[in-house]
Write a structure and sequence with these properties.
This protein is about 35% helix and about 20% strand. By secondary structure, the protein is of the alpha/beta class.
Length: about 650
C-alpha cells in the first residue's frame, strides 16, 4: 500500500522496526522445536493465499492468525475476509462457504489480490465455490477426508474431482487433514468431534511451514484464547505443531517458500496490523482526546458496523461511553442528545439503518450540532447482502432526508485510512457544527493492512470553545445570548452546554428565527436559513484533489472514491508498466467537492469513474460540472479486481 509499511507486530500489539531479519540459507527452515530441516526454499516477492471451508471450520480465525504471523514477520499485506450472512449456514453447502484471502509481499501492495496462488479447501463446497478464481498451475490443498459421496453430491459433484482429472491443471496436494488432526490429538482424551475442530490449526501449521511464518505468537494466542480450557488450548497448539511438522516431513511438500520482509519500501516507525473498523474506532477515540471531549456512541448492532460498538465499549478509560439502543432511531436520538450536552457524538450503522436515522439526521442539520454518522456500506437494497461490500449509499448520504438538509460526506480509501478519515470527519463536525457522514464499507471494515501508529504531536488540535456568556447586544443595550448568531468565517453557531447560566435557549425541529432561535414561520427567514445552512456546507475547508500524472501527458483520468483506491491504483500501475500514460485522482471529500475538481475534470479528454454502485458519483459529477464522465460499475458484493480495471482503462484510452 502506497502509504503503508509492513508491520512487525501482530494484530494484538505493536513493535518498533529495528532493521532487516537475519538472512536464511536456501536449505534451512526453523522448526518450532528448534531443529533444522533440509528442504529446498524458493524466494518469492509476493503470495496470495485463500483459506476456504464451511462457516464452522474456523477459516476467519485461521486467516487472522496467518495475517498476524505475516505482519510480525514484516511483510506488507492486504486481506479480504468473505463469509456468509447466516449465523450458521447449512453445513457443506455452497452458501455456507467462508473464505479468507491474504496477499503479502516484500514490497508495497494495494489489494488482497485478484486470484490466489494457493487455495486451501476444507471440503467439496469450498473447492467448488472457489475453483473458478484459481489460475492454472496454482497450488490446491484439499482435505481428502471430506470428499465422500454425500458431501460431494450436496454441491453437485457427480464424480470425485480429486480423481477424475478435472484438477490436472493445478498442483494438487491431497491431505487427510481430519484424520491427521485426530491422530495428533489422540492422547488428549477428546471426543472425535472435539478433535476435528482443530483441523484448521493443522492447516495453519502446514501453511506456516510452507511460507516460513513465525509460530510463537500463534501458540501464545491459542493459550490465551482458551485459557479457561487448558486442555483445548494445548490440543490446538499440538494440532498447529503437527501441521508444521507434516509439511517438514511429507514428500508431497518438497519445497517451501520465503517472502522477505518489506524493509525498504516504507519509512521507519511503530506499526501494527489493523482492520478498517478497528482503525475507525481508534480514530474516534483519538478525535475525542484531541478535542478534549467525552466520546459518546449511540448505536444499534448491524453488520458490518457492529465491531465499532464492540471495540469502543472496551475503552471507558478514555472517557468513552457506549449505548446499545433498542433500535436505530433510539441510537441516533441518544447520540444527538449527547451532542447537545457537549460530547463528541457518534452513531454507527449500515445502509438500512441510515434510512431509519434520516429524520434525526435532518434534526441535527436543523439544530446545527456536531454528530458523526458512520455508515459501513453493504449490499442492498433492504437487507440485501449483509456481509458483502458495496458503495451504493452515496446518494442516500447526500439527499436521503426531507427538505434541504445538506450534510458533509467523507470517505476513507484503505483500512488504515479509516483512522485519519475519522479525525477529518470530527474536525468538520466540530468546526462547522454539523452532522457529518463517514462512508466506509464492508471491504474496508473487515479487511486489514499495516498501519503506522502516529505520534501524538502529529494529530490535529480539535479543541472547541463552548459559549460562556452573552454574544449579542440589543438596541437598548441589553446583552443576550443568541444561539444562532454565526461565526462570520465558518457560519457555525455557538455551542452552549446545557446548564451554563444565562445561556438557556430553545431548540427543536421547527424552523428557527435567524439569530434568536425562536420559532419562525416567516417565508423570508426560512429561505435565508435554508440558504445559510447550504452555504455553511459549501464553505467547508477541504484540500484540493491531488492528481497523480507523472508524465503530464495523460489524456485519460481515472477518478475514484472510498475503497476503490486500492484496485484503481493497482490497475493504473499495470497500465503504466506497459508504457501508457494515465492520470489518477481519488476523492475523500464528496460534499463539498474539492474546489479544484471541476478544473481537474476538464483538463482530460476522458474521465473514467469506477464505482461499486450503478454510477452515483458519476451522476453527481455530470450534474455539477457538465463533464461527460464514463462510468464503470460493479455490484457483485465483491471489490474490483486490478486486472479487470486495467482492461477497462486500456479500452478507454484506445477508444
Amino acid at each position: 500500500m502506497t502509504s503503508q509499511v509492513s508491520s512487525p507486530a501482530e494484530q494484538a500489539g505493536s513493535g518498533e522496526r529495528s532493521g532487516d531479519s537475519p538472512p536464511r540459507t536456501e536449505d534451512e527452515a526453523p522448526r518450532p522445536d528448534g531443529a533444522v530441516a533440509v528442504k529446498e526454499v524458493r524466494r518469492l516477492d509476493r503470495v496470495i493465499i485463500r483459506f476456504a471451508g464451511d462457516s464452522g471450520d474456523g477459516m476467519q480465525l485461521t486467516g487472522d492468525r496467518f495475517t498476524s504471523e505475516t505482519a510480525s514477520f514484516g511483510n506488507d499485506l492486504s486481506t479480504l475476509p468473505n463469509f456468509p450472512a447466516e449465523i450458521r449456514a447449512p453445513a457443506g453447502t455452497l452458501p455456507g462457504v467462508s473464505s479468507f484471502q491474504l496477499h503479502f509481499a516484500d514490497h508495497d501492495i494495494l489489494t488482497p489480490g485478484d486470484a490466489p496462488n494457493v487455495l486451501v479447501a476444507m471440503n467439496p463446497a469450498a473447492l467448488k465455490a472457489n475453483i473458478a478464481d484459481v489460475p492454472r498451475g496454482a497450488d490446491i490443498i484439499v482435505n481428502t477426508d471430506e470428499f465422500t459421496k454425500r458431501p460431494m453430491a450436496k454441491v453437485g459433484y457427480d464424480t470425485n474431482p480429486l480423481e477424475d482429472g478435472s484438477l490436472d491443471a493445478y498442483n494438487l496436494h491431497k491431505v487427510p487433514l481430519t484424520t491427521l488432526t485426530i491422530e495428533a490429538l489422540k492422547d488428549f482424551g477428546l471426543s472425535r468431534k472435539e478433535a476435528e475442530r482443530s483441523k484448521n490449526m493443522f492447516a495453519l501449521g502446514l501453511l506456516s511451514w510452507m511460507y516460513h511464518r513465525p509460530t510463537e505468537s500463534t501458540e501464545a494466542f491459542l493459550r490465551k484464547k482458551f485459557a479457561k480450557k487448558p486442555q483445548i488450548a494445548e490440543a490446538n497448539v499440538a494440532a498447529f505443531r503437527a501441521g508444521w511438522n507434516f509439511g517438514e516431513t511429507t514428500e508431497d511438500f518438497a519445497v517451501s517458500y520465503e517472502v522477505a520482509p518489506a524493509t525498504s519500501a516504507f519509512p521507519a516507525g511503530t506499526y501494527r496490523n489493523i482492520s478498517g473498523n478497528l482503525a475507525l474506532a481508534y480514530g474516534l477515540i483519538a478525535a475525542s482526546r484531541q478535542a478534549d471531549l467525552p466520546l459518546y456512541l449511540g448505536s444499534y448492532p448491524i453488520t458490518p458496523a457492529s465491531d465499532i460498538l464492540h471495540e469502543l465499549s472496551r475503552h471507558k478509560n478514555f472517557g468513552v461511553r457506549t449505548f446499545q439502543a433498542e433500535d436505530e432511531i433510539a441510537g441516533i436520538g441518544a447520540a444527538l442528545g449527547a451532542a447537545f450536552g457537549g460530547a463528541l457524538a457518534v452513531t454507527t450503522t449500515s445502509g438500512p439503518g441510515v434510512a431509519l436515522k434520516s429524520e434525526t439526521i435532518g434534526l441535527a442539520v436543523s439544530l446545527e450540532l456536531p454528530l458523526l454518522i458512520v455508515d459501513i456500506q453493504r449490499g442492498g437494497p433492504s437487507t440485501g447482502l449483509p456481509t458483502k461490500t458495496e458503495q451504493a449509499d452515496l446518494l442516500q448520504a447526500m439527499y436521503g432526508r426531507n427538505g434541504e438538509a445538506p450534510v458533509p460526506v467523507v470517505a476513507p480509501r484503505t483500512p488504515a485510512d479509516c483512522f485519519d478519515a475519522a479525525l477529518d470527519a470530527a474536525r468538520i463536525a466540530l468546526t462547522y457544527r454539523t452532522p457529518v457522514f463517514l462512508l466506509s464499507d464492508g471491504y474496508l471494515a473487515n479487511g486489514s493492512e499495516p498501519w503506522r501508529i502516529p505520534e501524538p504531536d502529529e494529530l490535529p488540535d480539535l479543541r472547541v470553545r463552548f459559549a460562556s456568556g452573552p454574544n449579542h447586544t440589543l438596541a437598548d443595550g441589553t446583552e443576550v445570548f443568541w444561539p444562532y448568531k454565526r461565526d462570520p468565517e465558518t457560519l457555525a453557531r455557538p455551542w452552549a452546554v446545557p446548564g451554563t447560566p444565562g445561556l438557556e435557549h430553545r431548540i427543536g425541529g421547527i424552523e428557527k428565527q435567524d439569530g434568536t432561535g425562536n420559532i419562525s414561520y416567516d417565508p423570508a427567514n426560512h429561505d435565508f436559513m435554508v440558504r445559510t445552512r447550504q452555504a455553511k456546507t459549501d464553505g467547508i475547508a477541504v484540500p484540493d484533489v491531488e492528481v497523480d500524472d507523472p508524465s503530464g501527458e495523460a489524456k485519460l483520468l481515472v477518478l475514484g472514491w472510498g475503497s476503490t483506491f486500492g484496485p484503481i491504483t493497482a490497475a493504473v500501475r499495470r497500465v503504466r508498466a506497459e508504457g501508457t500514460a494515465v492520470a489518477q485522482a481519488h476523492l475523500r471529500h464528496l460534499n463539498p467537492f474539492p474546489g479544484n475538481l471541476g478544473e481537474v475534470l476538464r483538463r482530460y479528454e476522458r474521465v473514467v469513474v469506477p464505482e461499486m454502485n450503478l454510477g452515483q458519483l458519476a451522476t453527481l459529477l455530470r450534474a455539477r460540472y457538465l463533464v461527460d464522465v464514463r462510468s464503470h460499475t460493479q455490484v457483485s458484493g465483491m471489490p474490483f479486481k486490478a486486472e479487470q480495471l486495467a482492461n477497462v482503462l486500456k479500452e478507454a484510452i484506445h477508444d
